[in-house]
Predict the structure.
Amino acid sequence: QVQLVESGGGLVQTGGSLRLSCAASGRAFSNYIMGWFRQAPGKEREFVATISRSGGSTYYADSVKGRFTISRDNTKNTVYLQMNSLKPEDTGVYYCAADETRGRIMSTTVLHYGYWGQGTQVTVSS
């Protein structure tokens, strides 16, 4: 098992930046595909970004491509989400998640992730 704890959320103005972190503990962090998802009030949880076990491959939702960057440091058991040029529609609770399924390189699907953090609130004011 792996335990995930997000941090770095907060209130920021439109156009601002935030860096989210997700610290993992438990089994070997490098065994897991990692992903970031978000959920706005009254909406379903949606995919934001994913990164392969080595960090060599990444994939983004169209809505954040070019503005957000996912990265990981396997020596620190941490995955990051750098968010630039934030918009009000980026507001929501951001979750990191881990997928240990062998045979997958990355995943955009909520159901593929077996481990989730508690979430961190990001609010972008207009």
